[in-house]
Amino acid sequence: MSEILIYQNENGNIKVDVMFEDGSIWLSQAQICELFGKAKSTISEHIKAIFEEEELNPISTVRNYRTVQKEGNREVERDIEYYNLDMIIAIGFRVRSSTGTKFRIWANDKLKEYITKGFVLNDERFKNGNSMGYFDELQKRLRDIRISEKFFYQKIKDIYMTSIDYDPKDEKTILGLLVEQYLAFAETMAIQRTPMYMKDWIARLDAVISLNGRELLTHAGKISHEMAIAKSGLEYKKFKDEQKKIEKIQSLKELEEDIKRLK
Q: With 80 as the cut, is the pLDDT of residue 238 above it?
């Protein structure tokens, strides 16, 4: 499923809907012309030269997508060729455009975000309400999470394990119910198509915890900075000692394997 991101330069005079799919950015030839401020004939010549010089392979850099476009007063759906980020960058080098450089930085930043987080959030379209399919996708993802709640459960569990009255005996029942309530609320918001920001989700999670008679830690707690430093130092020393033991065992194993190979 493709996602549409919006690229807008700092002056606001260039605004392009960018398709994001399979870990790359895709633009049509018309969008590339708009991005670089060049005529279609110029961009066509560059694309042709890039393929003729075998700088890029059309199989990996070109895709056809069904796209709705305006032709006169009509909206027509046609197969349009789209080019990936490799081609866009290659064209950018040839037209020597500062806009191309800025776009490359923006695109690489988005790809990095995807690699790191596993998703890219289209903030602009979400804020403007132009992509209401977001809520349908959100509902689907929430259902997937409900099928396997391990991730959500583990996150809340990690928080509760820091409390001084943490009791592992009843954690599964209590935290399981907390997760169920929170996910039910999240799905309700998605069904009602209510826009939610990070601060809203945090506030609702606090409310769920409070309604269940659990105290929220809104202060520094009973553990002083010095106590925390001392504790972390002790735990880190234990960790390092354990690592040294593991490394020693591993080194001995490697030595034994080397000796066997020499025989």
A: yes
27 DSSP β-pair partners: 83
DSSP 3-state of 47: helix
State the DSSP code for 30. H
Asked whether the CA dihedral 227, 229, 230, 232 is positive or negative, the reply is positive
Contact call for residues 184 and 161 (beta carbons, < 8 A): no
Q: pTM of the entire structure?
A: 0.42
Domain boundaries, the chain: 3-128, 133-211
Better-predicted residue by pLDDT, 11 or 89 = 89
Tell me which long-range contacts 105-111 makes (C-beta under 8 A, separation of at least 24): 106/7, 107/7, 107/18, 107/25, 110/5, 110/20, 110/25, 111/23, 111/24, 111/25, 111/85
